[in-house]
Amino acid sequence: MAVGEAFLSAVLQVLFDRLASREFLNLLRSRKYDDLLEKLKITLLTVTALLNDAEEKQFNSPSVGKWLHMAKDALYDAEDVLDELATEALKSKLESQSETSSNTSQVSNWRVISSPFSRGIDFKMNKIIEKLEFIAKYKDILGLNNDDFRGRRPSGSGTNRRLPTTSLVDESCVYGRENDKNAIVELLMVEDDSSSSNNVSVVPIVGMGGIGKTTVAQLVYNDSRVDGRFDLKVWVCVSDQFDVLRVTTTILKSVTSKPADVDDDLNLLQVCLREKLAGKKFLLVLDDVWSRRNDDWDLICSPLKAGARGSKIIITTRDSSIAASMGTVAAHHLECLAFEDCSSIFMNQAFENRNTGISPDLETIGAEIVNKCEGLLLAVKRMGIILRSREDKGEWYDMLNRNIWDLPHDESSILQTLGLSYHHLPPHLKQCFAYCSVFPAGYEFDKEKLVLLWMAEGFVQQSNAKKKLEEVGREYFHELVSRSFFRQSVHNSSLYVMHGLMKDLARFVSGEFCFRLEDKVMDDQKRIFDKARHSSYIRCRRETSTKFEAFNEAECLRTFLPLDPTGEIGVSYLADRVPRDILPRLKCLRVLSFSACRITALPDSVGDLKHLRYLDLSRTAIKQLPDSTGNLCNLQSIILLECYSLSKLPTDLGNLTGLRHLRMSGSRLREMPMKMYKLKNLQTLSHFVVGKDRGSGIKDLKEMQQLQGELVISGLQNVICFTDAMEANLKDKKELTQLVLQWSDDFGDFGDSTNDGDEEEVFKVAQLHRNRKDLNASGCRNTRFPSFREAAGAYRQESVELKSERRSSLDGSGNERVEMDVLEMLQPHENLKQLTINDYGGIKFPGWIASPLFCNMTVLVLSNCRKCQFLPSLGRLPMLKDLTIEGMEGIKSVGAEFYGDGSFPLLPFPSLETLKFENMSEWEEWTPSGTEGTEGFLHLQNIEILNCPKLREFSHHFPSLKKMTICGCEKLEALPRLLTLDRLKQGSEFPCLLELSILMCPNLMELPTFFPSLRTLEIDGCQKLAALPKLPSILELELNNCDGKVLQSSSGHSSLTYMRICQISKLDCLVEGYFRHFTALEELQISHLGELMNLSKKIGLQSLFSLQRLEISGCPYLKELPENFYELLSLKVLRISSCPSLATFPEMGLPSTLVGLEIRSCEALQFLPEKMMHESQKNKDAFLLEYLVIEGCPALVSLPRDKLSGTLKVLEIENCGNLQSLPEQMICSSLENLKVAGCHSIKSFPEAVFQFPRILSDTVMKLKELIISNCMHLESLPEGLHNLAFLDHLEIDDCPLLQSFPEPCLPTSMLRYARISNCQNLKFLPNGMYILASVQELYIHGCSSLMSFPEGGLPPNLISLSILDCENLKPSSGWGLHRLTCLADFSFGGCQGLRLPNLKSLPNGLKNLKYLETLEIWECDNLQTVPEEKPTTMLLSLWDGL
pTM here? Predict the structure, then answer.
């Protein structure tokens, strides 16, 4: 396998191109490096000529492998030196250009390099030449041959040659391919189009190596249906050498069943073959094809065309491009096998000859092995065969944990098969594929981001001057997809993944030059290889500085990439010292990312990373980039997404003339740096801010002719001359597809970023961490690290203030004329697809906005253009699909002008699908087009009219509308109605409408009489509406804050599956038989019916045969539930809340089908029925209840004592102050979560509640979480806590009478979190805590009677420990910190026994806590110093101290 090709051939090509560049030639003329570089070039070529031979021989010769590693390392060093020279040349060029622009003279004077740099380069180049010459000397000793490296394909001499495939198959060993076989057989059975001139169809089967393409072809070939369809069948294994002579000979032999007489004469062979096939329908299988369509393929097909119509050729290939070039029908793509099918194959192979029972342990390990194979047939089958003769469990574990390249040579067919795909890659794709080994298994990556990374590493070569590097990179990517190295993610079609074994192949071919930090940790290799070039690591929520010590030795590193493979980590806390410490060491970095790491600043040393091409600081807390960033002349990409604190870019950003992508969003920039016009190579500029009186003006966009994608231009109110806008020349920027023009500095919508659950954790972490400049200086202040949420809040507040300021400026006379002229001059190119105009202050729009020439415009947003009185003729835009008009306070009427002047040949809005009007405070009427039958909107599917309080009516009919939302239209009285007596025309207003929501329209009185297709209807706040229309297809109905007549008119809808009744006025009871026809209803919510007193048995609840979920809430006068409640035989979830008058439950009990029951805030409820679940002969003891929640029932005295369910998993009882005890029967072995809180009358738990014998596994408590809180009279905890073998989380809070824990100690196996707080009489902690090895977090707060730690100390593996306000606590053996070697967070204080008020220094034992990150100390007024050998990673917070 040609491992080295992944890096070397393409790299050398780039190096040699650089040697010939103009910058180098100019540099060399003044540096006298010619001889050195020529010598380096010759030496490089000498070594490279040996590489292909070495790559094949390394498998059988460890010495060759070491030689190859040395060669790769030397070539990397050579590239670094040449890149350093190229950078100097570029700097010299830029400086000379700068001087030229400031002088009248046009003579280019190249800057002279300083002597130290010159001497350093000389030394490095000589050292590399010596190393390469030393490496080259070993060629004869190792037996390496000098072969030309360019374009040479592996011969296979260094690896085992694969045997050809045959048509035979053992179908008893095939699983999971029946559907694939049938799909292909159906393609073979289809008669060809008689009008086609070709008698032969080609059916491709495509999939990655080892997935089972040959097996499927064999199944098809041997299918009985195929036998009866074709006169002849031929099987040919083509393999990687497409030999026309061999293939033709094989076909002829199969047809004639005898050897060919003219084996070496292709002409005679083909003539003979054509004669034999003439008029016969044949099936030809060409298995394992590697060559794309070319002259050879056409030559093969020539005699085949003589076959009868309906002849078929099946080709199997790994490359979808080959399939596309040869196939006449769409390729059939094979997917990985399902786990069940793989398990069957594995068991068949691994246990084929076993007569005795199979060990359960081997079955379990086997399942993990199968899972590791990820559905790849070859891997599953091969692993089963390897393990067939092995019965030792240890050997199976060893196989599970092995990498595929660690298998014995004679068992490594998996690697050889996948490696064949790799062999056939051209060199430039090999390095791109190998680079992907930095991604963890299952990682979903984005195409565009990966292309930028490849570009930064120098992998993408611009062979065609007309193609951009990005386009070439995308071609690389698509090629790897085509060859089955990458595949689309099943979770997100815009992302891609690598099969697990492909990932292993990438790791193998990249060797020690690519690594993931986690892999090194797992392999217990504390020292990262000093030759490593590319790295990644998986981020954590809280990063420790020690984690990055591993990078100290990786001084040649080029890639530093944090990743979040799950997408659930959110942002990571990372101390600013981490980039400050590691960047000076990593001088060779080309890719640097701190994405989603909450650093607040980047050190100035980043400006020394002269090789840097890619910088990603997205979702960080940085306020500005250091000015030294302007020195990074090689930078190609700067990514600054969601940097909500960023307010300033580097002053010399314009010097980065190679910058191609500057992506920003959510920043607080008020201006761009000067000289942005110099960034002529910029392709992505997501945001350009026009500054006020300083910074770059809009005319700086003139030179950025390569801009593409999205561009936001904000601050346009600062443009005072329309000629500046004209100079921006947007009209000629053909590749812009999305444009936002914004006449404000508003930072835009913040989005949902602050709603992420992970940000709450970041917020808490930020509260704990303080950054102190001098811990020994008294009086210094804490400067708190800004959390993501706080940065977002400040960002949002400033945005609101800017909006208000902008609105004030518009209220005056303003500059309407200037803004109109500016917008006129900002006309974009006709290729634009999306346009947004925000806060425009002109009184009308320019004509170009509605020009039909914008035939690609699909999305248009006009927002907060408050002075405009008329809308442009947007109906003339032929491809417009999505239109939003909002905040247009000057619009009173929308009429004929909206549709067009009649000259447009199509009906108005011919393509519009979504239309939204919002916050149109003065809009009164919306009239249709003046000509009948020309209203347009033929394809409109979704319309929203929101907060338009003066809109009285609109009379449009929307024939294709599927969803309509109307909200806050206070004067709207009716929806459009067609007045007709013709039944056939009833419902023609909205014939396709599926969803209708009408909210807060208090004057709405009538709706159309008939909605034939409506499935979802929501009516809220329409008090004057008297009746609902006919709704034959209705499924979901919500009635809120409506008249009772509407509710009555809703009965009889037998198709309903969901119904919500809320705030219906004057409703004290439901009419008799109301639910009689709701036989399909699955969910019912009855909420906030302020006058409802009862639900009688006459309302027809027994007819709700399908009801599964019922919620009754906010009914203050409801006193009882119907006695026949148990007849709801499908009910699974019942929620009753905020019914303060409900005193009892039905005596007959609740439906036995209940899975969940919640009772909350029923203050009058005293008792639950003793037989809580209704029993019958059919369901006796067959209860299904899994969770029971009773909360806020202060009158509840007791709970039923019958056994509820053997399936109960969650039991929560809160704020039931009069409840005196818990029945033992309610706490069963299936329970997983138990919470008792606010039950002040409970003194103890049932004695035997946790006393299950551990030896009986079926009765061992499965409890995982136990919370006992705010039980003021609780005197003792339940016995048998040690029996809770699965307990993970324990909280005992606010139990002031509790004095001790029961003996023996807490469970030892799985307990991770323990919290004991505000138990003022607790004198002793549980004994034996030192053996609780699984406990990671321990919090002891407010236990004022606690005097000492338990004997033996605290749990040894604690990560977080907090001891606060334990006034009498005295540690029995000093601090005992030295035993807590994993401790990362420690807070203590308020413990008089620790003498903190007089504490002047911290114990030296802290120096042993090398993982300690945060230390929080309370009430330490006299603390003056910390230990001199304080852990370097520790952040110290002192409260009431110093």
Answer: 0.82
